[in-house]
Each structure stands twice: as C-alpha cells, then as structure tokens.
Design a protein that fits this description.
Structural class: alpha+beta
CATH topology: Fusion Protein Consisting Of Minor Coat Protein, Glycine Rich Linker, Tola, And A His Tag, Chain: A, Domain 2
CATH class: Alpha Beta
Largest sheet: 5 strands, mixed
Distance between the termini: 37 Å
Low-confidence stretches: 1-24
Radius of gyration: 14 Å
Helix content: 10-25%
CATH architecture: 2-Layer Sandwich
Strand content: 15-25%
Length: 129
Amino acid sequence: MSWPRVHAVLLCGALALSSHALAAEEPAPRLSEMIPVAECWNVGGLSAEAVRTSVTVAFSLDRAGKLVDGSLEMVEWDGADVAAAEEAYKAARRAILICGRQGFALPAEQYEAWRNIRLTFDPRNMVVS
C-alpha cells in the first residue's frame, strides 16, 4: 500500500499537515483540529528508550472518517532499538484507536487528500509532566 497523500507530524502535542493534493497557494488545514489524537497520546508510561524514539504510523480512513480495519501500521521509526520502537508504536496506535473510535470529522469533498494518513509521533519534542 502506498502512503504518499497526506503527511502529518505530531510534535509537542500538535499536528501539522501537508498534502500534494492541496494547492500550494492555500494554507494547509490544521490536521490537529480534524484528527485530534494528541489528547489521547499517553507517553507517561513509556520506557526511557521509547521516549527517545519517534514512530511514523500510516493508516487509511473510510469516507466517514473511520479507521479502515487492518490499515494501521508502523512504517518508520527513529530511536534506540526495535523494542523501543514497538513500545512507542503501541502508544501511538492506542491514541489513534481511542480518539478515532467515533471517526474523525473531515471534509468529505477532500476525501482523496486525507484518506491515507501518516502521523509521526515524536515524544522527544513533547514536555511530559
């Protein structure tokens, strides 16, 4: 499966969106408002290695903004080791599943632009208390 359509980065609890499907002159929509997974992302229980590991998660959404079964996968990671990446991925996965339970409110007319999503979760840039 290819994931080129939408790329979002989760840093400091905020998401930024870029898409090849959107016109370059238009400001990018705030994906953090449309896909609010930061509020469900809990890094407090992660190991020290996992907190220093970023993971990129790809998934597809149906036209109703709901996660397509079986589409959630870790596509990249950067950090200590595979075990830390897997731990960080599980936290990111839980955030997407919990916050996406009812689906995300996305503009239907832009479905082609947001149906395939890549989110990068990077706890190194997040202040956790």
